[in-house]
């Protein structure tokens, strides 16, 4: 049974930082593209960042470039999202997801994401 468990969310003032973690089990982690998505009530889930199965390439939505960094540790079956300079508009539930392997660079957001975590709330207050 595949499980993706996010942690690290919380309440922070605008301009602050948070680091999200997503621990995976039940799958061969190193064979999957890993992504982070977010969703605000009443809106569609949106892509935030992704990293290739090797960790060699990354992809970000424009609004987080230069502020967020995705990374992974295949020895720990964990993917991270370092979020700096948080803005109120970053407030959302953040989900990690595992997707198809054969994607890289700016196509990472197109990977078919098949496994999803339960989400963690991030709130950046103004």
Strand content: over 45%
Report, as a whole number of angstroms, the end-to-end distance.
40 Å
The description of the largest β-sheet is: 7 strands, mixed
Estimated radius of gyration: 13 Å
| Number of E-state strands | 11
Amount of helix: under 10%
- Low-confidence sequence ranges: none
- What's the helix count? 0
Give the topology string: H per helix, E per strand. Answer: EEEEEEEEEEE
Shape: globular
Task: Indicate the structural class.
Answer: mainly beta
* Mean pLDDT figure: 96
Question: What is shown here, in short?
Answer:
The chain is mainly β and 126 residues long.
If you had to describe this structure to a student in words, what would you say it looks like?
The structure is a single chain. With 126 residues, the chain is mostly beta strands. 0% of the residues lie in helices and 50% in strands. The strands form two sheets. Strands 2, 4, 5, 6, 9, 10 and 11 form a seven-stranded mixed β-sheet that branches. Strand 7 and strand 8 form a beta hairpin. The chain is globular, with a radius of gyration of 13 Å. It starts with a strand and ends with a strand.
SSE order and pairing:
Elements: E1 3-7, E2 10-13, E3 18-25, E4 33-39, E5 46-51, E6 58-60, E7 68-73, E8 78-83, E9 92-99, E10 113-116, E11 120-125
Parallel strand pairs: 2-11
Antiparallel strand pairs: 1-3, 3-8, 4-5, 4-9, 5-6, 7-8, 9-10, 9-11
Note the main attributes of this structure.
126 residues, mainly beta, 7-stranded mixed β-sheet, 11 strands
């Amino acid at each position: 049974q595949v499980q993706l468990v996010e942690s690290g969310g919380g309440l922070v003032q605008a301009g602050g930082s948070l680091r999200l973690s997503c621990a995976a089990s039940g799958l061969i982690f190193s064979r999957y593209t890993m992504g982070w998505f977010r969703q605000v009530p009443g809106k569609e889930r949106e892509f935030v960042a992704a990293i290739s199965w090797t960790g060699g390439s990354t992809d970000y939505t424009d609004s987080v470039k230069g502020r967020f960094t995705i990374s992974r540790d295949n020895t720990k079956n964990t993917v991270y999202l370092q979020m700096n300079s948080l803005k109120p508009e970053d407030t959302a539930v953040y989900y990690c997801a595992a997707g198809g392997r054969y994607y890289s660079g700016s196509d990472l957001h197109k990977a078919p994401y098949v496994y999803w975590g339960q989400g963690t709330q991030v709130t950046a207050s103004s």
